[in-house]
Request: fold
Amino acid sequence: MKILTTVKRVPDPDLKIKVNGDGSGIVEDGLNFIVNYFDEIAVEEAVRCKEAGKADEVVAVTIGPDDSLMQLRTALAIGADRGIHVKTDATLDSDTVARILQKVYELENPNVLFMGKQATDDDANQAAQITAELLGLPMAVFASKITMNGDSVTVMREVDGGMDEIEVTLPALISADLRLNEPRYPSLPNIMKAKRKPVDTKTPEDLGVAIAPKVSMVKLTEPPTRAAGVRVADVDELVSKLVNEAKAL
Amino acid sequence: MSVLIFAEHKNGKVVKASLGALAFGKEVAAKLGTGYNLVVAGSGIGDVAESLKAYGAEKVYVADAPELGNIVAEAYTEVVAAAAKESGATMVVGVANSTGKAVMPRVAARLDAGMASDIIGWDADAMTFDRPIYAGNVISTLKIDTDVKVVTVRGTAFEPAEAGAAGGETAALSVDLGAALAKTKFVAMHASNSARPELTEASVVISGGRGLKDIGGFEQYIYPLADLLNAAVGTTRAVVDAGILPNDLQVGQTGQIVAPDLYFAVGISGAIQHLAGMKDSKVIVAINKDDEAPIFNVADYGLVADATKVMPELVEKVSAAKSN
Reply:
């Protein structure tokens, strides 16, 4: 059993993001880049499958500029066995990412592809679903709990109104939601070990994928800030404001 | 050239968010000078399909089959893609909820279309779409460069379309679901049972955070106000992670996005990820004992107080105000 898992480099979501002067991008100075949290969960789950004896090999793939190698090393420190870095400086849309993953999948031929359900930078929540469609794979997106049963996986999914439970036949694609697991902090020896794990570098051209985005960014803006309101002294004043001023009750 | 809107339903009624998607789809159709069609899927949905005829669509495509009784993304993808092809749609619209998020990107891939997720607005002349990124800290305006376009709409961003006189017609859509369901099997739905309105449908939302401590805190300090105002109950990621409330009550970037008329944040500090899910509410009330809590930066009315001390009084006085 081989598991392929994905890692995206994103700005730390706990830092305030600002748009640059001409609206062509964000201000990158002072940003700290990390592994997209949902991808970290996906990698963790893949490694746990291996540790539980349900998988033999975990391969992590990242797509992005040179610096993405740092996030790939984090995946290797969590416990992935080897990495694939698809190197590109181009701005990619979800469709292009999926087309690259499709080719990597076809080369690696894994039994399971684990991805984060969305990236916390563009919040698109598309790449996993598009990849599944391109590969004709069954998918279980927004996974909160998985049980490997040999040739199938039972997945509890976080959906509106509760949880649903589905069973997908392998090979399959699973996208990780928040509560699938709590990723470990890699130990120092594992961080050191990760530096020696093999990483294969490719380009989209090597994989035969043309960078032809279907969606293009026109501009970025900051949303209107909501004006802070007033402090009320007590419950009486609050109710009075809600009734008379806001007319919300 | 036409617009197709994927309409979702629950308990025999079209969901409010789909009526928002419908409103957006009508705007696009008007701009393109074309008609629009609807597609609906499920099992035994004759009444819902019939009710959809009142929304001015040329056709309501109906996929009514036992296998569609539970939502499996692969099967719903077949239905929406088939309706898009049959109607010659150049714009396919869904909702950015858990069904739309799973289904619509697959539909986009099937149609070789570019897609914009979770849009909150658009520019009809430039044909550009606005969507929040970075947990709502940035708005991205984007273009879809393919002839066929797929969009999911944030449920709260467009005023729900209203029903008019019944017109249009239904058209049965026959879709082979065999391949789609061969490798994905629905096992069970574990619904969170609640008599309260759903978060995305309610006009008042009462959310509690870690300040409530445990389920007892919610029962004692949140539910009475929710009952009084017929409000939905929401919460934060921390509370769901702690297993106190189920996942579908999480308001935030990766949970439910709400924009009710009135939002109460009780014992919630206001992390960026939570604010992303509620800051478009019309009136926001924050009650928190920490004067420095970021939630006060977005609240119209802030009360610095311990929720456990003031919530009973609030219930009593809101009740008195309502009976006047």
